[in-house]
Amino acid sequence: MEEYKSVNKYxxxxxxxxxIRRSFFLSFLNKTLISGLLLISTLCMIKMYPDxxxxxxxxxxxxxxxxxxxxxxxxxxxxxxxxxDTIFEDKTRMVFQxxxxxxxxxxxxxxxxxxxxxxxxxxVLDSGIVVFIGxxxxxxxxxxxxxxxxxxxxYSGVDHSSIQLYDYVEKGDLLEESLGxxxxxxxQKAGEFLDYRKYLP
Length: 201
Fold this sequence. Notes:
Glucose Permease (Domain IIA); elongated; 5 helices; alpha+beta; 34% helix; eight-stranded antiparallel beta sheet
């Protein structure tokens, strides 16, 4: 048995985090067991119901998370989900606030091709969250913004080097530069393509 020469030394030794280590271990063990059970349950469901795999694949890899629905529910019960102006008072932020300007329009695939100047600074048409950055077949480099109204807008033919996935962008802000003299806009909601003439400014 360890001998203590003073009461303070004894009390200090008693306060060492033995209980903390034990509770951390138990917490870690519980989380590991719960994660394991969830994984096993998911694998069993996939094995028992083959359609579950297709459903999970569609929901995770093909569909976007509906940030507009989450925002709508959050606003209904808690207020504005993006109170950026009250949280940040950045006086030095560059103001862009532009409208979409183009010389000519032409229907293209599921959207519209717009003639613009090379290096045109493309404005955000409506506030929302960036839900896709990459190449789309037939469209090239594309950025998809899910607007607060639930409509996904594809901005194709634009550079996407300075924007990140899940960035929040505001109406009129600079999205990106056009790569050439054309950009393509596509409007989509719940997997259905919409008539661009109803939404093109």
